[in-house]
């Protein structure tokens, strides 16, 4: 039982004492920092149920504590395992990246994660920090409601797990256009193979074209008529129970 | 090798008793089929006679100029049309003809075959009920 269950689990299974960081667990950096068999001191986090989680990527939040207390910003990353939220441009420290032997590196600002207790969601019209609760609307939809004013905080559209942005997807791409156009369009995805239709993809117009013509014949009868197949033999009567 | 490393780690001991014992496992002498049906009859002389009607034959129409492909582009919006119901099919195909005939005065309730009515499914190659074709 244990072996089959292990083999059939397709999702990445992390060891029990895994130390989550800002990188996703299947990235090279995370794999270097967390080799299999490593045991680190446990980090204690306030247990929050997955259903009770209120902060999502793209939300506007206000920082309540730390260097940038009182400022508002957009959430760029959420690490639920450590109750972390990374806000764009706030709570930054400075570091050098892309160091080589000769070049000291680029000096950039990098954001440090904030805990949920140092963060507060912001009412969309007031733009002041509020307490938020999950409630159900008349239609039965689960929404976040600000406790002070009763306004609904819509959950921002979440990016897809595979990182594809359908708005930036280029349809048919023949090699005539240069790569410069592709980079500009997709804002980050470099290779045109990663953001264009391949040879096995139906184009958008062909997929949406309505070619169905209703008829009283079954599919098989229509094909027989179209190909001129005549079948006069009939199957013998058979019984099943 | 993955199996061996897990055994070495001491998580599981012994052979795998739970996964199905297929033809891919076991020694070379272990010969097992995968459930293919017999396409004929074994005669009394132990000779196998193939029945041509039991051999499946794929009837594929000519696909030149066919625009649909296995996958769909990410640009196409999600969503689908509601599935076709019998009532919808009737309303689109048969009802206009019946209305036209009623207006002309040529509607005959005893001759509904010209609108596509089938009194019995006997004698048809593809019977609708009980369904005798595989889709």
TrEMBL record, chain A:
This protein's GO CC annotations: mitochondrion; ribonucleoprotein complex; ribosome
Chief site of localization: mitochondrion
Residue intervals of the KOW domain: 54-81
InterPro entries linked: KOW, Rib_uL2_dom2, Ribosomal_uL24, Ribosomal_uL24_C, Ribosomal_uL24_CS, Ribosomal_uL24_KOW, Translation_prot_SH3-like_sf
Superkingdom: Eukaryota
MF term (GO), any: structural constituent of ribosome
UniProt key word Ribosomal protein: yes
Protein's name according to its UniProt entry: Large ribosomal subunit protein uL24m
Gene source species: Tichodroma muraria
TrEMBL record, chain B:
Gene Ontology biological process: translation
Subcellular location as annotated: Mitochondrion
Family recorded in the similarity comment: Belongs to the mitochondrion-specific ribosomal protein mL41 family.
Top-rank taxon, per record: Eukaryota
A GO MF label: structural constituent of ribosome
Gene: Mrpl41
Lineage: Eukaryota, Metazoa, Chordata, Craniata, Vertebrata
Species the sequence originates in: Tichodroma muraria
Keywords recorded for this protein, A-Z: Mitochondrion, Ribonucleoprotein, Ribosomal protein, Transit peptide
GO CC annotation terms, alphabetical: mitochondrial large ribosomal subunit
Coiled-coil spans in chain: none
InterPro entries, alphabetized: Ribosomal_mL41
Protein name per UniProt: RM41 protein
One family name in Pfam for this protein: MRP-L27
């Amino acid at each position: 039982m244990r072996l089959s269950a292990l083999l059939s689990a397709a999702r990445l299974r992390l060891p029990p004492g895994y130390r989550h960081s800002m990188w996703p667990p299947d990235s090279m950096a995370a794999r270097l920092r967390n080799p299999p068999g490593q045991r680190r001191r446990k980090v204690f986090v306030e247990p929050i149920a997955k259903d009770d989680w209120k902060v999502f990527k793209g939300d506007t939040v206000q920082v309540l504590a730390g260097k940038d207390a009182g400022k508002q910003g957009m959430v760029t990353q959420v690490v639920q395992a450590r109750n972390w939220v990374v806000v764009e441009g706030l709570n930054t420290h400075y570091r050098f990246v892309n160091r080589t032997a000769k070049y000291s590196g680029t000096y950039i600002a990098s954001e440090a994660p904030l805990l949920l207790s140092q963060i507060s969601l912001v009412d969309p019209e007031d733009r002041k920090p509020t307490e938020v609760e999950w409630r159900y609307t008349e239609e039965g939809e689960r929404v976040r409601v600000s406790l002070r004013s009763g306004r609904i905080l819509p959950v921002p559209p979440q990016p897809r797990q595979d990182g594809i942005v359908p708005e930036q997807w280029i349809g048919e791409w023949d090699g005539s256009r240069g790569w410069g156009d592709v980079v500009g369009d997709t804002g980050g995805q470099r290779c045109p193979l990663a953001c264009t239709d391949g040879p096995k993809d139906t184009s958008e117009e062909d997929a949406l074209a309505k070619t169905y013509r209703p008829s009283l014949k079954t599919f098989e009868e229509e094909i027989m008529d179209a190909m001129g197949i005549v079948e006069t033999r009939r199957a013998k009567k058979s019984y099943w129970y | 090798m993955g199996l061996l490393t897990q055994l070495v780690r001491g998580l599981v001991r012994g052979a795998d008793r739970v996964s199905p014992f297929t033809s891919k496992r076991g020694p070379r002498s272990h010969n097992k089929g995968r459930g293919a049906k017999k396409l004929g009859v074994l005669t009394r002389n132990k000779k196998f006679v193939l029945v041509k009607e039991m051999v499946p034959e794929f009837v594929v129409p000519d696909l030149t100029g066919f625009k649909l492909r296995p996958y769909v582009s990410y640009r196409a919006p999600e969503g689908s049309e509601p599935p076709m119901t019998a009532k919808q099919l009737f309303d689109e195909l048969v009802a206009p003809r019946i209305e036209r005939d009623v207006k002309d005065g040529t509607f005959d309730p005893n001759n509904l075959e010209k609108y596509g009515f089938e009194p019995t499914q006997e004698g048809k190659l593809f019977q609708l009920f009980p369904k005798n074709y595989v889709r």
